[in-house]
Specification:
This protein is mainly alpha-helical. It has a single domain, classed as Up-down Bundle (Four Helix Bundle (Hemerythrin (Met), subunit A)). The chain is built from 4 helices and no strands. The protein has helices at residues 14-35, 40-68, 73-96, 102-134. Helix 1 packs antiparallel against helix 4 (102-134), helix 2 packs antiparallel against helix 3 (73-96) and helix 3 runs antiparallel to helix 4 (102-134). The chain starts with 13 loop residues before the first helix and ends with a helix.
Length: 135
C-alpha cells in the first residue's frame, strides 16, 4: 500500500510534516522493494534504513512534546515504542525467510503503512493542535 502525503496527513507543524514526508518516502521504498520481489538483503537494508529514520523522527517529535509540555507524552512515547517493536519483529520475520513473502508484505502494510497513517492523523495532529492552542 503506497502512502500519499496529502492534506489528511499534514499536522500544520512544518518540521514534523517534513519529517513525516521523509518517513513516508522510506516506507514507500520498503513496500516497493518488497513488491518487486527483490532479494532478501535489499529488503533488510531498506528496513534498516527506515528504522534509522524512525529513531531520528521519534526522538525529534518527543523532544518537541517535552518542550511544549504535551500532556499525553507518556502515551505517545509508548505508541512509538510499540511501533519500533513491530519493526523489529518484521526484521526478524524477514531474516527467517528467503526474501519478502506475501505474509511479510501484508505485515508491512498493516504494521507500518496503516499504523503510520493512523498515528499521524490521530496522535500527531493532536500534538499540533495542542501547540496551536498554547500559542
Amino acid at each position: 500500500m503506497k502512502i500519499v502525503f496529502d492534506e489528511s496527513l499534514r499536522t500544520g507543524n512544518e518540521r514534523i510534516d517534513s519529517e513525516h514526508q521523509e518517513l513516508i518516502d522510506r516506507v514507500n521504498k520498503l513496500v516497493e522493494s518488497c513488491e518487486k520481489g527483490t532479494e532478501k538483503m535489499t529488503a533488510i537494508k531498506t528496513l534498516d534504513f527506515l528504522m534509522d529514520y524512525t529513531e531520528f523522527h521519534f526522538a525529534d517529535e518527543e523532544k518537541l512534546q517535552k518542550e511544549v509540555g504535551y500532556d499525553k507524552f507518556d502515551q505517545h512515547h509508548q505508541m512509538h515504542e510499540d511501533f519500533k517493536k513491530s519493526v523489529g519483529e518484521l526484521h526478524e520475520m524477514l531474516e527467517e525467510e528467503e526474501g519478502p513473502t506475501d505474509a511479510f508484505v501484508q505485515a508491512v502494510n498493516k504494521n507500518i503503512s496503516e499504523w503510520l497513517v493512523n498515528h499521524i492523523q490521530g496522535w500527531d495532529k493532536a500534538i499540533a493542535d495542542f501547540i496551536r492552542a498554547k500559542q
